[in-house]
Design brief:
242 residues, Nucleotidyltransferase, domain 5, 2 domains, 46% helix
Length: 242
């Protein structure tokens, strides 16, 4: 049986310091991840649950908690023994030169079932958008009419020169509804994006698009299995109010 382990009791000042490290999301990614694990443990989460949230192993979570219990905040900061950090791979943040291009997330939020769907694609074109629409259509019986709410980004639209979106929607019992211009925030999915960034992207520095896409897919699975989690609902509610 795996060991049941919790972080030692922390006072208010220590709790606020952990929160500042996690919310700031700058500096060392290692420190941010360790602080997140300790903070989740202090909030009552067990190691297996923390491992799922942090996308790491249970043993790693237990090591971080044990080290914090023994050495305090000093254990959160990586200790490099001179020279370069022990990582020979050169890593560049996505906000610098995007030599490998960018990726686009096609996502949908099903209000009734409170479920999030998403596909990561290399381009956001009308063809890719229709591929995602076909996937959404396949989730429901053909006799069930569905509505897809979109913003006014050009690949979502039917134009005089390209009517593929409208033609497909009419033929497949689908209504494409658009938010007003410059009002994409009215779409209920926007708050879900806030939660995705908070849990899966803030403070990260993925080595490749493949790694980032894998984390996003794992987050969507986790989110749909924890749709009524207190922290998730709090973040979504705050984003909806904002």
């Amino acid at each position: 049986m795996s060991e049941r382990l919790r972080v030692r009791e922390i006072d208010d000042d220590e709790g606020q310091r952990l929160v500042r490290i996690v919310r700031r999301g700058s500096g060392s990614v290692v420190t941010w991840r360790r602080a997140q694990m300790v903070l989740l443990s202090a909030q009552g989460m067990d190691a297996p649950v923390i491992a799922k949230v942090a996308f790491t192993s249970e043993d790693r979570v237990r090591d971080v908690i044990r080290n914090f219990n023994a050495d305090g905040f000093g254990s959160l900061y990586p200790k490099y023994k001179g020279g370069r950090p022990p990582n020979p791979r050169r890593r560049m943040r996505a906000t610098r030169n995007r030599t490998a291009g960018v990726r686009h997330l096609f996502a949908a939020y099903e209000l009734g079932a409170d479920k999030l769907f998403g596909h990561v694609k290399p381009r956001k074109t009308r063809v890719r958008f229709l591929e995602f629409c076909r996937y959404l259509r396949s989730l429901y019986p053909a006799t069930t009419r569905i509505a897809i709410v979109c913003d006014n980004f050009s690949p979502h639209l039917s134009t005089r020169k390209d009517r593929r979106v409208g033609t497909w929607a009419t033929a497949n019992n689908v209504e494409i509804a658009y938010t007003p211009t410059n009002s994409s925030w009215l779409n209920r999915i926007e708050a879900q994006f806030t939660a995705l960034r908070y849990f899966a992207l803030d403070g990260t520095d993925h080595a490749s698009h493949k790694d980032q896409a894998r984390i996003i897919r794992r987050y969507i699975i986790w989110r749909n299995n924890h749709a009524y989690g207190e922290r998730l609902r709090r973040i979504v509610a705050k984003a909806n109010v904002a």
